[in-house]
Structures are given as structure tokens and as C-alpha cells.
Amino acid sequence: MSYCLHPTCPSPSTPQGEHFCVHCGSRVRLGDRYAAVQPIGGGGSSRTFLAIDQRRLTHNRCVIKEFEQQGDGEAFRYQIARIEPLFKHAQLPNVLAYFERDQHHYLVQDYIPGPNLGQELQASGAFGEDKIWTVLQEGLLLLKYLHSQRLIHRDVKPTNLIRRDGRFDLGYLTLVDFGSAKIATQSALAKPGTMIGSAEYIAPEQLAGQVTFASDLYSLGTTCLHLLTGLSPFELFNFRDGSWLWRSVSGPITDDLAQILDRLVCRNLTERYASTEIALKDVLLHCPEASSTLIMPASQPPLPLPDTQPPDLSWVCETTVTVEHPITRLVLLPMGQMLTGDQQGAIALWQGTELERTWVGHAYSVAALAYSPATSMVASSGYDRTLKLWELDRPTPQVLLEQGELVTALAFTQEGHLISAGRDRHLRLWDRHGKLLHIFEGHSAPVESLAVSPTAPVMVSGDADGNLRVWNLNLRICLRQLAKHGGSVSAIALIPSPDPEEPEQQTVVTGSWDMSIRLRHLNTGGLYHALAGHLLPIRTLALSADAQILATGSQDSTIKLWSVITGQLLATLTDHTAAIEAIAFHPDGRLISASQDRTLRLWRGH
Fold first, then answer.
1. Which of 61, 80, 110 is the last residue of a domain?
2. Alpha carbons within 13 A on the beta-carbon side of 72
3. Residue 479 near residue 429, CB atoms below 8 Å
4. Does 277 score more than 80 pLDDT?
5. N or C: which end of the chain has fewer CB atoms below 10 A?
6. Helix 129-148 and helix 213-229: axis angle, to 10°?
7. Would you call 79 helix, strand, or coil by DSSP?
């Protein structure tokens, strides 16, 4: 059976294989891939489900964590984008995907096989001293890693600590459930918040809404007291005089361990361990046969790209072509050809840097231009508010839209269908013959940019308010929103996954009027790189054929080249004297750029 995720479904259980709930009609799977099987936890404003990844034959179990949306959801999106890269740690559950639906957020993570420490306590009874030392050592190593990344878990407890595969060796304790986690900034730590966590285990300051890094240490300490005695922390504390009673009910333990536990659960912050480093040093000093080896995040780079670096090149402009009117859009075609659109509305076909022919495309400046390898069709839009579909050898276009809102961005799907985006806040899907198939709605501001994946039915769109939406083209639904930019999203590109069995594991690159460039995991929004250096808004961007070099063009007249793997700035090209309008990489590695300075330049790395 599958389990319907709709929060008001009267009878959530539905037959396995159904795409829609038989009781409420809601879509059963997230992203047509992840299907909940049964609830395994919940409380407050969240629920947790065991789920199945329908695209995997083996190792297909996963976990779906559901959260109610608070406000417009932007704070939660930002949180997910910040913490997702941290889950590359070997002892944390990897984030697989992120979705939004029915005013709820859904986080999909790896399923960790094995009992949690609460289950182990029930099955085997109170822990001995050797096991408590192991829990302390591993728990502190995990918290040290999280705290070094400015993340406070806020809900450390026995049921959130899982012994992978039931093993009690070092390196097998996994910390789960980051629904309460908080990024610690100076302002966030100084600002009182809502009490979050499980009351039995949380520190006094956390009960008052004032969480600190030491709050996680208190929770780890109360967790150990529960495991050591088999009694709830509430039963181990004398509320009349504020003292702990655990020593009178625990089995025999060394004084070293007792003193460490006492200091972890001090209610007074000034007497508690101030940091994980201090606590861990104490544990390693007194723990028999302690190991200080930290299980670090996977060394594999987070981006789904080959672990190689672009060559160390110096870039020079080898050809400059002066044009009559500034070129506003540029698209490369097969066989070395190139299409351009200019500020007077003309569309031109080039062979290399030689102009072959020109025809009148629009009455005013060309706003967007796209080419479909599947159909050899060209689409263009102009500031005359028309959208046209062309055949290269027959420059008499089919007019799809006229006298409507400005169409700002165009892209073709793998099948040759056209996507148009515009100032009317909508995206439109057209078939090969110009028939309107669907209108995507959801943006609250004019759509300024879009990109379609070359390997999966996925589209990303950005609007003038900095919002980003991820769409499934087959289902024709918005899968999720990504953390917004501080200004209009002016350019988007998608880096395909190198794994053909995981086509959706892509990276999205966005450029904005806030002068920043971001590289993020498409499924989760996790931030890989935030690039800065341009002095004015980003206008355009392009990726090299091997997806190792990112080029960005700005109104500041410069082009910057970046390593996609490391985020390192490789070169700054300064020959243009006005805003960069369009850039593209030739398959042989050369870069073509067009600027308001009325030049078309060809660059080569040496």
C-alpha cells in the first residue's frame, strides 16, 4: 500500500501503484518518484514517513519529512539550501530531494537501516559504561562537525540516534531528523525564538527560546542519562531543588564518566561545557581506548561533475567583429553557424564570424532567441511584443503571439516543444506546430529567465522578484521553489547529471541583478558556490561543453570565467567597453561574446 500525503485525506492508505489517491484524488508520489508507505513519526507541525523511491530496484527505501509551511516559506527554503551540503557527512542521512505541495514542505532523505538508541534501550535494557563512552565519543564528533558549520541540531535524543545496521562500532552512529535544526548567526543567537525540541531532553535556555551550541551538549547529556538508567530525564531530576538524582539509580560507573555527564547536564550555562571541542577533549582524555578519528564528509566533490579541473589558461581576444547595431541575443547552431538578434530587431545567420544573411525579425529589439536541434526551428521574441516561430531556410515566420505582454525568455525541450516566458508572469508550452498546449502559473512577478534540462523533463524559471521555481514538464506542476535572489533573476543554466541512471541529479546556475551567481543542487536547492565579483548586475551566463567552466557577463562590461568545481575565478576579460548582452561557448572551447559596444568578440584560452 501507498500512503497519501494530503494533510486532510480521510483515508490515506491507497493501493500501491496508483498515481492518485483513491479517496481524495491527490497525487500520491512526490515528483512522480517518491511514494510514502507508512508514517513512522510526527509531532508539532511535522510528520515523518517511510517511503519508496520508485525509480530504484535496490536500496530504494527513503524517508519523507513533511513540514507545515510558515508564512511564504522563504525562510525554510533558505534553511534547506544552507544545510543540504552538510549532509555529505558519512554519518548523516543524505538529502535526495525537496518538494513543496499543499502548503507543506517535503524533504526526502536516505533511509538509515538499523535500530535507534531508544529501541535498543527497550530491547536490551540500560546501557553499560562502555556503550555510554561510545555514544559520547561519536555524538560529540558529530556535533563538533555540525557546530563547525554553524548548525545547531536542537533535538538530540535517543530516537534520533540510529545505530546503522545495528552495529556498535565507531563510525556507525547516525544523527537524523534535522527538522528543528537552526543555522546559528549572531543575530539568530541573540534573538529569542520559539521553543523547539523534545521537552525531556532540552536545555533550560532552549525551553525559554534562547538556544546555543551548548544546548546540544545538554541534550546529548540527558540522552546518555536516559540510556544509562533506563529512566526518563524527567524522572531523574528533582524539580524542587533543581538537582539531578541519576547517580542514585544508575549502575556502577567510573568517576571520570560521572563527572563528564554532570558537566554536560549543568543547567547553568556558565558551568556546562562551553563547546564540543572542550567536551570531546575531556572524553578522549578519560575514555578507555578512545579514538579521535573524525568521520569527515565524503571527499567526493558535491557537484555531480568529474573530479577534474579546467586547465590553467590565459584568455585572449583573437577576433573582433564590429556590427552596425548592438547584438542582444546569440545562439550557436550545428556546423559552426550562429544566430544573432540585434537592437533593431534584425535576425542574422553567421558562419563563424562571417555574416551570411540577415532578415527582419521584429520591429524593435530582439528580446529572446532559441534554436531546437530536434526540429531545426528557431523561436524569437521582440520588444514589439510578438513571438515568432521560424524555419531557417524559410524566413517567413509563424506568429504565435502579438500585441501581448513582452516575452522575455525562450527555450526548447528535447522533443522540440517551445517554452516561452513573459512579463504576464506565465510560462507557455507550445507544440512543434505552434499550438498552445499548457500555461504554467505560479510566479507573482514577471518571469525574466528560464532553462530547460537537456536530459530530464525539468524546467527552471526565475522572476523579477528573485524567485526561482522548478517545474516537471511531464506532470506540468511546480515541484519546488529555490531560495530567492536579492534581485531579478536574469540568467539560468542547468548542468546535466553525469549519471544516466540519475538524470535529475543536476546543478542549476543562476545569475541576478543582485550581482551574484549561485550554483545549487537542483533537487534540494543546496548551495555549492555563491560567486561574487561583478560590480554591476549579471546579464548573461554560459557553460563550456564539458561543464567545467562558467562564463558570466555583466553590465560592468566584463566577462568572468569561473571553475564550476571549485568556484575559483579563473580569468576576467576586459576588452569590451559596454554592457555584455550575450555569451556562448563554442564546442571547441572558444568563447563568443556580444556587447552594447557594437562588437562581437571571439576568445580563446591558451
1. 110
2. 9
3. no
4. yes
5. C
6. 160
7. helix
Q: Is the pLDDT of residue 192 over 50?
A: no
Residues 122 and 105 in one domain: no
Same domain, yes or no, for 156 and 191?
Answer: yes
| For helices 213-229 and 255-264, angle between their N-to-C axes, nearest 10 degrees | 130
| Domain end residue (candidates: 286, 303, 330) | 286
Question: What is the spatial distance between Cα 156 and Cα 141, in angstroms, rounded to a whole number?
Answer: 13
Backbone angles phi, psi at 478, to 5 degrees: -85, 120
What is the rounded CA–CA span in Å between residue 485 and residue 567? 18
Alpha-helical runs (H) found in 498-574: none
**CA 356/CA 340 separation, integer angstroms:** 11
Q: Which residue range(s) make up the domain with 226?
A: 117-286
Phi-psi map region of 154: left, alpha, beta (phi>0 left; psi -120 to 50 alpha): left
Residue with cell 547529556: 221
Read off the CATH number of the domain in which 320 is found.
2.130.10.10
CA separation for the pair 285, 429 (Å, rounded)? 65
344 domain-assigned: yes
CA–CA gap between residue 163 and residue 113 (Å, rounded): 8
Check if the beta carbon of residue 507 is closer than 8 Å to that of residue 457: no
Burial tier of 171 (Cβ tally within 10 Å: 0-12, 13-18, 19+): middle
- Strands 599-605 and 591-595, by their bridges, are antiparallel
Using the structure block, give the residue that is written with the C-alpha cell 500525503.
5
**Cell numbers that stand for 370 in this block:** 532559441
| Residues constituting the chain | 606
405: closest CA among 348, 359, 443?
A: 443
Closest of 397, 393, 401 to residue 435, by C-alpha: 401
Percentage of the chain with pLDDT > 90? 63
Q: Is the pTM of this model over 0.85?
A: no
Supply angle C-alpha 56, 57, 58, rounded to 5.
95
- Same domain, residue pair 367 and 225: no
C-alpha cell at 231: 529512566
d(CA 425, CA 478): 14
> Is residue 454 in a domain?
yes
User: Active-site residues: which are they?
Assistant: 155
For residue 121, is pLDDT > 50? yes
Distance CA 552, CA 23 (A): 50
Distance CA 382, CA 156 (A): 57
Domain with 106 in it: what CATH number?
3.30.200.20
One DSSP character per residue, 109-136 reads EE---S-BHHHHHHHH-SPPHHHHHHHH
- Residue 297 belongs to some domain of the structure: no
Residue 468 confidence (pLDDT): 95
d(CA 403, CA 91): 57
Distance in angstroms (rounded) separating the CA atoms of residues 41 and 49: 7
Q: Which cell numbers in the block locate residue 114?
A: 538499523
- Structurally, the chain folds into a number of domains equal to 3
Q: 349: burial class by Cβ within 10 Å (0-12, 13-18, 19+)?
A: middle
Predicted confidence (pLDDT) at residue 189 exceeds the cutoff of 80? no
Amino acid 593: pLDDT: 97
430-438, Cβ contacts within 8 angstroms, sequence gap of 24 or more: 430/389, 430/400, 432/375, 432/377, 434/389, 434/398, 434/400, 436/400, 438/476
